[in-house]
Amino acid sequence: MAxxxxxxxxxxGPPFIPEVAEAVQDQAAQLSPDVIVVSGDLTQRARxxxxxxxxxxxxxxxxxxxxxxxxxxxxxxxxxxxxxxxHRLYSKYITPELNSVTELAGAxxxxxxxxxxxxxxxxxxxxxxxxxxAEAFAEADPSALRVVVTHHHLAPxxxxxxxxxxxxxxxxxxxxxxMKVDLILAGHMHRSYIGNSLDFFPGQLDxxxxxxAQCGTTTSRRGRGRERLRNTFNLIRTxxxxxxxxxxAWVSHLRRFMPTSDHFFPRGARQYFDHAREIGASELA
Length: 285
Description:
The protein is of the alpha/beta class. Helices cover 28% and strands 25% of the residues.
């Protein structure tokens, strides 16, 4: 069994909310996850002092932290730096690894950098990164939960507002399906949605479902849509062949995050539907 605390879009800088960030630290200690996953946008404008503050904050978690950069972690106005060394400060203060593999009891997590220096908002996963992930998962224990982390979203939000997915999203999801990935964690949209790849990519990708858990902004004022001015995180647990995603939202008068919805998915959802079909066929015989 593995437990993952999924936070995203911290935005250290003017939009950052210290009170909410402190509550995340307190509740992380109470929830006791095996790992903290941060799916990008640690800073608002990729400045040294913002990265320093983010690094100090992440160091306070008493659990391993898996992190990927977001588009806000690449300089926007410092054009020469954006072109020549887009992740210079991220690598200096956070981690030099833009793509990483983390193994822990019951899970393997592959984090992939989806940012692009010449694109202001949208991202992309390149073929060599898919090969990187495939090589990592080839070494994973067959029973381990297989998790991919990116910043940009591979599936559109349910309201489809500003929902343009990253380039070649379907190719990436197809590749992750072939790798038997169980779970994709991402951010970027500043609003949460939780579902299955079978909901977003029907047809040729329907052999096996991947749970997709998007996180809103956990510690900033930049929430969008129904999460406007709201903060959220996800808590993922695996147990008895199921993936459980509990969605938490900040409740200001309680000064804490509270669970607002609970989602249960069988690992490899296509197999579940196959099983249900077999049961139905036997009942009709």
